[in-house]
Amino acid sequence: MTGAPWSSGVGRRPDGAVAVAGVDVRDLAAEHGTPAYVLDEADFRTRARAYRTAFEAAFGAVGTGVDVYYAGKALLTVAVARWAREEGLRVDTASGGELAVALRAEVPGAEIGLHGNNKSDAEILRALDAGVGRIIVDSLVEIERVARLAAERGVVAPVMVRVTTGVHAGGHEYIATAHEDQKFGLSVNPASGGESPAMTALLQVLKHPELRLLGIHSHIGSQILDPDGFEAAARVVLRLRADLAERSGVLVDEVDLGGGYGIAYLPGDVALDPERVAKDIAQSVAGVCQDLGTSLPRFSIEPGRAIVGPAGLTLYTVGTVKPVTVSADDGTDFTRTYVSVDGGMSDNIRPALYGAAYHAEVVGRSSAAETVLARVVGKHCESGDIVVHEVQLPADVREGDLLAVAATGAYGRSMASNYNMLPRPPVVAVADGASRVLVRRETEDDLLGLDQG
Ligand code: LLP
What residue stretches are annotated with the Orn/DAP/Arg decarboxylase 2 N-terminal domain (predicted)? Predict the structure, then answer.
């Protein structure tokens, strides 16, 4: 039990139990309870560094610079924001709440970006007051909103315009479409032969003295395992940048290519390699700029999952085990062993929301038993409350066993809920043989404290 999809600090001890960064999972469970999100700090830092150094080297080699923003939506706590900063990353936030965490971590405003397709006045004002390095605007309405609020504060707001390139990626496929039927960004494609919404927005920003146009932003999707989509989107953005220069005389300095770098969720999955993808993108954008006759802009990227996803696992305790006879399509019967754990869709909504696949193992002991086809389910009042759709577990899996699900660091805690009034689990960091709580477990009192009776 080493290597992907587990974090680099995960391994079996001689007695068969698993340790994370030198901490036995039985000790983690005894000290912090289950379910718990366990975060391997060294693994997070190594991935953050790997992305930064790979992109700096590749873009440096073609003669430009790059900034790596950690996408806080994947998981943001004060400590996590500090780790990102200490590893030379900036922080991308998607709401006033995420911005508040980054600021609490003393990330300088200039190193923070603010996203969102419907930012409130309060969120924008908070960003302006914090002196954020960039506000990524997402609509014509919002351009006016940011300009009005910047004027109110007597500041000039640094903005990027989020565009949709028609390149939609995720998994191994990308499909170029003229218009994307989704809420984000402004299309680079003209509505009916006229000017594209993206061009309209860029020109609109340039008209405002309260706004400083930093550049163009594109995010094409998530869990992308084929770098072609990034290159295709970059081509479209760089062409738009050249067109804008032709129209307005302004060649913007920056281009952001968003996040979406894919990771391994199951044994055998191959994650996107940051060195390879950085080189591919850098060489491709250099060629495109040469063809367009423009200088290279400074680039930025916003990986979230690729930094924190593999660094996290969720530790559960098994409560019940139930063999269920299932009729297969061909009419034969087989047994699926339902293993219920003490969490579920409230701590990881991704299987229910996206059909996401995960891997699990019994981690409190080793077992010489044969394996059985199991489904790990939660404790919620819902049959779709599935944690792992399909996994081979030892046939002797039983009540009290500790079970870990791999690669839950991204979008687990950050999308957690209190469904069925379940308090959300803690986030526990492990490093060098010691654990510490980054976010404590919620209590029923926390939840009842919100209820005004
Ligand atoms: N930048 C922007 C503008 C984004 O919208 C996102 C993700 C990212 C960066 C980070 O993407 P990443 O590198 O983490 O893939 N909740 C979903 C994913 C939705 C992500 C939305 N935006 C999930 O659980 O897979």
Answer: 48-308
Say if residue 270 is in the same domain as residue 412. Answer: no
* Residue 304 CA to ligand 1 centre (angstroms): 7
Q: What is the mean pLDDT of the chain?
A: 96
Of 222, 263, 277, 307, best ligand 1 pocket probe by most atoms within 8 Å of the beta carbon: 222
Which residue has the least CA distance to atom 20 on ligand 1?
222
**pLDDT of 172 over the 50 cut:** no
Cα 105 → chain centroid = 19
Q: Could you tell me which of 401, 309, 306, 319 has the C-alpha nearest to residue 361?
A: 401
Phi, psi of 149 (to 5 degrees): -70, -35
Residues with catalytic function: 381
Beta bridge partners of 19: 11, 24
Range of the domain at 221: 41-307
Do 62 and 107 lie in one domain? The reply is yes
Ligand 1 shell residues, CB under 6 Å: 71, 73-74, 92, 115, 219, 222, 258-261, 302-306, 350, 410-411, 415
Evaluate if residue 176 carries a pLDDT over 50: no
- pLDDT number for residue 179: 52
Residue 365 has pLDDT above 50, yes or no: yes
Which residue has the least CA distance to atom 15 on ligand 1? 260
Instruction: Render pLDDT for 393-440 as a digit per residue (tens, 0 to 9).
Output: 999 999 999 999 999 999 999 999 999 999 999 999 999 999 999 999
Which residue from 44, 67, 68, 73 has its CB within 8 A of the most atoms of ligand 1, so it is best to mutate? Answer: 73
> What is the sign of the dihedral through the CA atoms of 58, 62, 67 and 71?
negative
pLDDT for position 182? 82
pLDDT at 173: 44
CATH of the domain at 193: 3.20.20.10
Residue 235's region, left for phi above 0, alpha for psi from -120 to 50, else beta, is alpha
| Domain finish residue from 252, 287, 307 | 307
Whether 231 and 138 share a structural domain: yes
Residue 375 confidence (pLDDT) above 70: yes
Residue nearest to atom 9 of ligand 1 (CA): 259
442 is in an annotated binding site: no
